[in-house]
Design a protein that fits this description.
Two copies of one chain form a homodimer. In chain A, 21% of the residues lie in helices and 30% in strands. The first copy, chain A, has 253 residues and is an alpha+beta fold. Chain A folds into two domains: 2-104, 2-Layer Sandwich (Alpha-Beta Plaits); 107-242, Pseudouridine synthase I, catalytic domain, C-terminal subdomain (Alpha-Beta Plaits), CATH 3.30.70. In chain A, strands 1, 2, 3, 4, 5, 6, 7, 8, 9 and 10 form a ten-stranded mixed beta sheet that branches. At the A-B interface, helix 2 and strand 4 of A face helix 2 and strand 4 of B.
């Protein structure tokens, strides 16, 4: 049995997230369809993460256990031929049996994109949230620094999660402005349900002048979802990178 | 009667070009719908150009004659509220009566985008042509220089045009590579039907090694469409800028 780690990229607009759902098209389903066409067998796959409806992924990793002997390079090419235009396979490597796309991950980087102009952008409409009020990026960066470190993120987690332990470590949060595009980058060891979207929504309310820049520590300490900002819309969120410590040594076979 | 010049931007994927057609949704139609909602009257509009189905515009100018007294700034805001996400109004200025969005234009700049990688890009799929063979950009640039100047472009014009005079002047053609994105920029005083797409298709065949880089002058001289390359797909084409000599002095009123 080979354990393959396949890196994909997708535009999430047309999908109800990655994870298979009944009565809704998901990235996992179209990926499994492509695998089935290529390997003539429907294989189980494991995603590195769940993603919400409409969220995009520049890099998303999928684990696939298979008896098939097809070389990784050929599998990449064959899957791409069988996938729709909005899902691409970037890479495939063979990893040890105990490696798991989700549980072996040591962290992730998300980017939240905001089109910050009075006028919408017809080309970035599916990839960014159109926020017309002027954002103070310096203020957002000062506030963002308070997220860094290990905290209980209960205030930044949507209801409906079954996770008990809400302590997570954030390594980096930065806000950059490039013309009218504002990008919030968040790196951490793990994330709760809607955590990045609530962090982004709160920072945007601070940048727009609707909240004080000094309040993040108090919101974190409250453990109260109602104290944080609104959940920013899904279509601005991009899973940018999945980190694995030990992956560098693995080879394409 | 006020003569307004309105600058718009649109993602062309969902439209059968700008110009109104029977039984097909066009940018002009949705723009006129928005004008009708705002001004309570269906007004005639004049586009600066025709664009093909699926072609995008970073900047496209529309002439609108109206008795309405709404200030330009308010009209921009009101139109944006009434337009779909893939069409935006960027600007509106009042121009002299004799000014015409199409006939007063002194030139246009187009950008043709190619995603030049073995693997497709799920985010640029609607905005670029996926061309998997390696392109020699230096070779393309040397060939492109032969387009510059005043030539009869009959060999670079699709059949079915009613235009008699096929002499046009090209001021600039340049090819740039940024990562896996290759952009062909063409500036000229005017363009024939499919001219930029055939120029791009020919340059891409040269860059891919399927044609000699020295053959552009002979293809131009032949006046024979069959001698030029294939018409590159519409979805890679972007109308980037419309030039007007005298526009700088006009004011927003």
């Amino acid at each position: 049995m080979r354990n393959l780690l396949i890196t994909i990229s997708y535009k999430g607009t047309a999908y109800h997230g990655f994870q298979v759902q009944k009565n809704a098209v998901t990235v996992c389903e179209v990926f499994q369809n492509a695998v089935e066409k290529v390997l003539k067998k429907r294989e189980d796959v494991k995603g590195c993460s769940r993603t919400d409806s409409g969220v995009h992924a520049g890099q998303f990793c999928v684990g696939l256990s298979t008896e098939a002997s097809i070389p990784c390079e050929n599998l990449v090419r064959a899957l791409n031929v069988n996938l729709p235009d909005d899902v691409a396979v970037l890479d495939c490597i063979e990893v040890p049996q105990e490696f798991h796309a989700r549980y072996s991950s040591t962290g992730k980087r998300y980017v939240y994109r905001v089109w910050n102009s009075a006028v919408k952008n017809p080309f970035l409409g599916e990839y960014s949230w159109h926020y017309p009020y002027k954002l103070d990026v310096e203020k957002m960066n000062r506030a963002a620094a308070d997220f860094i470190g290990t905290h209980d993120f209960s205030a930044f987690c949507s209801a409906g999660t079954s996770v008990e332990d809400k302590v997570r470590t954030i390594h980096f949060v930065g806000v950059e402005k490039n013309g009218d595009l504002v990008q919030i980058t968040v790196e951490g060891d793990g994330f709760l349900y809607n955590m990045v979207r609530i962090m982004a929504g709160t920072l945007i309310e601070i940048g727009g002048g609707f909240r004080e820049e000094t309040q993040i520590p108090a919101v974190l300490a409250s453990l109260d979802r109602a104290k944080a900002g609104k959940t920013a819309p899904a279509h601005g969120l991009h899973l940018d990178k999945v980190f694995y410590d030990e992956i560098e040594g693995f080879k394409r076979k």
